[in-house]
Design a protein that fits this description.
Layout lengths: L14 H14 L4 E8 L5 E7 L10 E5 L7 H16 L11 E5 L4 H9 L53 H12 L4 E9 L3 E4 L12 H18 L6 E4 H4 L7 H8 L4 E7 L12 H23 L2
Parallel strand pairs: 3-4, 3-5, 5-8, 6-7
Antiparallel strand pairs: 1-2, 2-4, 6-8
Bound molecules: N~2~-sulfamoyl-L-arginine and zinc ion (ZN).
């Protein structure tokens, strides 16, 4: 990852700064990047969708979809995604292989929670939706998707718990917007990445329950290993684990990765837990290094998906 033409990402951006950055990239590189608001959060913030393509996003290439900013306190996935957008636009000609695919990126799925974690409660995880009959707010956005939502798991039905799954599937507007987007683009999206922190792992599904397997589990694992190796090439100390999420972490139903594969039929999906240090509070001085490492992972994903799905 080159340093030329790249910004210094020396602090965690607030939501407004992210919007400003995205708009600026569209002004600077209108042929490469588009930006649209695909819906609103509970508190009426825009859900920004970035599309990056060097062929006008004409449907001729497989698409990689990246979702970040789902869990409010997980700031590093948001910044590494912003850094990816910066690199793909400012230094596009250095990475022709990354343009064998088109990119759809939703950098902040849960802007209300993200802002709340900056202003009120650093460890906030959920959205900020109001729960009827309770004074506790928010739903765990990654427990609210309409696929196997009802299956018993670590998801909670108590609105005061940080893994509250919501009163019903897609009760949060953010989840509804993303679900629709995935269903509408199910034919072109070949890889879905849900970016989280922390733990240094590349996790595939099914994640809602242990003991079940996707038909292409071997391919999911192999591609995961390839990406882990690419990251390690940049930093030999970053040993990302590749595993089934239900087995490696815990069974968690209603997550976006399971929806992407199980409901939308996208052939590859992962949840990536960034960073092998055990804290959400990554020092800002680490943003650039972690972005470089994850970028190598994205590059490897793009090469593999380009190879597998070129039409
Ligand atoms: O629990 C989660 O939502 C994710 N981990 S985190 O620590 N960032 O909260 C893991 C989700 C893995 N995917 C599924 N279980 N489907
Ligand atoms: Zn998370």
């Amino acid at each position: 990852m080159s340093r030329s033409g790249s910004r210094k990402f020396d602090h965690f951006y607030r939501f407004n700064e992210i919007r400003y950055f995205l708009k600026k990239q569209v002004k600077r590189h209108p042929k490469l990047i588009t930006l649209e608001s695909v819906g609103k959060s509970f508190e009426n913030r825009d859900l920004w969708l970035v599309k990056i393509s060097n062929s006008g996003f004409d449907g001729s290439k497989p698409v990689i979809f990246i979702e970040a900013g789902t869990h409010a306190r997980e700031w590093i996935p948001v910044m590494t995604t912003i850094s990816l957008i910066n690199e793909l636009t400012e230094n596009a000609n250095q990475y022709p292989e990354m343009f064998d695919v088109d990119w759809m990126i939703l950098p902040v799925l849960n802007p209300d929670g993200y802002e709340y974690s900056h202003t009120k409660d650093r460890m906030w995880r959920k959205s900020r939706s109001v729960n009827n009959g309770s004074t506790c707010r928010g739903t765990d956005t990654n427990r609210n998707f309409a696929y196997k939502w009802e299956v018993p798991s670590v998801a909670s039905d108590d609105p005061c718990i940080s893994t509250f799954r919501g009163p019903h599937p897609e009760s949060d507007p953010e989840v509804k917007v993303l679900s629709n987007l995935l269903l509408q683009n199910r034919d072109i999206i070949k890889l879905y990445l849900s970016m989280h922190a922390f733990g240094g792992s590349i996790l595939y599904g099914p994640g809602y329950k242990t003991g079940i397997h996707y038909e292409n589990e071997e391919e999911l694992e192999e591609l995961g290993f390839r990406v882990a190796a690419a990251i390690m090439n940049v930093n030999p100390n970053e040993a990302y684990q590749v595993a089934n999420s239900a087995e490696y972490l815990y069974p968690a139903a209603g997550a976006s990765d399971d929806f992407a594969m199980g409901a939308a039929g996208i052939p590859y999906a992962y949840t990536i837990e960034i960073g092998t240090e055990d804290s959400f509070e990554v020092p800002p001085s680490k943003i650039s290094q972690l972005s470089r490492e994850i970028f190598a992972g994205y590059r490897e994903f793009a090469i593999a998906i380009g190879e597998m799905f070129s039409y």
